[in-house]
Amino acid sequence: MRTKRTHQMSIYEAFSKHEIGRELKAVSDWLDGKRPAVPS
């Protein structure tokens, strides 16, 4: 019997299309544009 495999989406690339998902994407984009809290 052949094994079926389902490709899983990355949690870092997927955002839902509903209102909360869009808000989380906006927050993520905003945070990506900020300097790190801890200097490296």
Helix/strand structural class: mainly alpha
Spans of at least 5 consecutive residues whose pLDDT stays below 50 are none
Sheet with the most strands, sense and barrel status: none
Q: Care to count the β-strands? A: 0
Shape: elongated
Radius of gyration: 16 Å
Order of helices and strands: H
- What is the residue-mean pLDDT, rounded to a whole number? 76
Helix content: 25-40%
Number of helices: 1
Per DSSP, what share of the residues sits in E-state strands of 2 or more residues?
under 5%
Distance between the termini: 52 Å
Short structural summary:
The chain has 40 residues and is mostly helical. 35% of the residues lie in helices and 0% in strands.
Set out the fold topology.
Blueprint: H1 19-32
Describe this structure in words.
The protein contains 1 helix and no strands. With 40 residues, it is mainly α. The longest helix has 14 residues, at 19-32. It is elongated, with a radius of gyration of 16 Å.
Describe the structure using short key phrases:
elongated, mainly alpha, 40 residues
